[in-house]
């Protein structure tokens, strides 16, 4: 399943084992169109304007289908390319990167590739060790962490597993510190509320004592005058 941009007006694409992908309107659940693929799609993604659907197939290829045809029609893929290197491993992960300028694919045997969509060429590739891969996700980085290319374009950096592990540890530590700051602020607020409650109780007690003593003081003065 893959979702496009647009909030409640976005479209959602789903894949089934019969080699078809269906595109749905999120706001009303209507089936907009059905796409016929030459194989089973194990992964899906949409570009930002939701004009094209990219499907990672069980045949090791990326299949592209346009979404601009009339509604409720069956559309075939218009472009495909082999993306699993020298093998026919299935594409289990696929996603957009760099503002839909690049497509990232990952095969079940751990071959990750980054493709330039404008030229269709392979921009970078690397291997993921540790056994079979079942899924892959493209994570968005902050603008400060994105490198700039020489032509003032937006580049990207491929990090190994150790770098990602360390980055994850730092992110978790920062999250823990933020949560501790929030807890500290809440504790201070509770203490201030408790102190305020104690002050109000003391004022009420002092008022009760003062009110209770005033009639007695007058009575004592009257008794002394009679004596």
Automatic annotation (TrEMBL):
Protein name, UniProt field: Uncharacterized protein
One annotated Gene Ontology cellular component of this protein: nuclear pre-replicative complex
Source organism: Oryza brachyantha (malo sina)
A biological process term (GO) from this entry: DNA-templated DNA replication
One matching Pfam family: WD40
Alphabetical list of PANTHER family matching this protein: OS09G0477800 PROTEIN, WD-REPEAT PROTEIN 18
